[in-house]
Specification:
Layout (H helix, E strand, L loop, with lengths): L1 H4 L6 E3 L21 H11 L6 E5 L6 H6 L6 E8 L21 E6 L5 H19 L3 E6 L16 H19 L3 E5 L5 H15 L16 H14 L6
Parallel strand pairs: 1-6, 2-3, 2-5, 3-4, 5-6
Helix pairs in contact: 4-5, 4-7, 5-6
C-alpha cells in the first residue's frame, strides 16, 4: 500500500498468508492472526492522510474483523458480498454502520449456489454506483477465492473468469476515482487448482493480458440474487443514489 500510494508501483497483489479479514484488534479468528487489509487501510489514513478508503471483500465469508474495525467511521468504507448463512454468522443487510459510519458499511449476503451472474450484478447495481459516489482515494480488495465453484469449504459457484470480471470492474473504478491506486490482498481459497487458476486470471487482468476478462456479458441474476440486490438497494437507497 505504501508503494502504491507513493507511485512506486501502479497496483499490487499481496500474497498474504495467513489471511486476515476475520481477525479483530483483540482476538484471532477463522485462520486469521492479523487483519492485513484493516492494518493497510488504517495506515493509509493515519500515515498517508487519506480520508476515503474503500475496502471491498468478495471472500466467501463475511469479514467480521474488517467491518468491526471501521464500523463507527466513514474514512474506511467496507463492502462485502458473502455466503449466508455461514461462518462467522455476521454480515446481515441491517449492518450498515454506526454513528459517523452509518451508511458506510454495505453487506449483500447471498444464499449458497450463487455464481458469476449474481456476483457481477451485485457489483453493477449496488457496489459500483455507491463506490463512485464515495469517490475513494484508494481501493483495497479482500480477495478470497473460496467462492470458487469447487471450493470444499463453500457452496458458491464463481468461476475463475468471474473473478477476472470483478477485477476488471474494480480496476476501472480505481482508474476513474483514484488514479488507479488499488491493492488486492489474498484471503481464503481452499481448492488449490481453483486458487491457482483464479489468481492467475486476476493477475492477467491486472496486466491486461487476458482480454476475455474485460467482457462482462451482463446476464440477468437468479431470482435469489435479484431479491438480495433489491433488498440492498432498498436499505442503502436512502443515502446513496441507486
Amino acid at each position: 500500500v505504501k508503494a502504491v500510494l507513493e507511485d512506486e508501483i501502479d497496483a499490487a497483489f499481496v500474497f498474504a498468508r495467513p489471511p486476515g479479514h476475520h481477525a479483530e484488534a483483540d482476538r484471532t479468528s477463522g485462520f486469521c492472526l492479523l487483519n492485513n487489509i484493516a492494518i493497510a487501510a488504517a495506515y493509509a489514513g493515519a500515515e498517508k492522510g487519506l480520508e476515503r478508503v474503500l475496502v471491498l471483500d468478495w471472500d466467501l465469508h463475511h469479514g467480521n474483523g474488517t467491518q468491526r474495525s471501521f464500523y463507527d467511521r466513514r474514512d474506511v468504507f467496507y463492502m462485502s458480498l458473502h455466503q449466508h448463512p455461514h461462518f462467522p454468522g455476521t454480515g446481515s443487510f441491517a449492518e450498515t454502520g454506526n454513528a459517523e459510519g452509518k451508511g458506510f458499511n454495505v453487506n449483500v449476503p447471498l444464499p449458497a449456489g450463487r455464481g458469476d451472474r449474481d456476483y457481477l450484478e451485485v457489483f453493477r447495481e449496488v457496489f459500483l454506483p455507491i463506490a463512485r459516489q464515495y469517490n475513494p482515494e484508494l481501493v483495497l480488495v479482500s480477495a478470497g477465492f473460496d467462492p470458487y465453484y469447487l471450493d470444499p469449504l463453500g457452496g458458491m459457484k464463481v468461476t475463475a473468469e468471474g473473478f477476472g470480471r470483478m477485477t476488471r470492474h474494480l480496476l476501472d473504478l480505481a482508474d476513474e476515482c483514484c488514479g488507479g491506486r488499488i491493492a488486492f490482498v489474498l484471503e481464503g481459497g481452499y481448492h488449490l487448482e481453483g486458487l491457482r487458476d483464479s489468481v492467475r486470471v486476476v493477475l492477467d487482468t491486472m496486466l491486461e493480458e487476458n482480454g476475455k476478462s474485460s467482457v462482462d456479458p451482463g446476464e440477468a441474476p437468479s431470482p435469489e440474487g435479484k431479491a438480495a440486490i433489491d433488498k440492498a438497494k432498498q436499505i442503502h437507497g436512502e443515502l446513496w443514489r441507486l
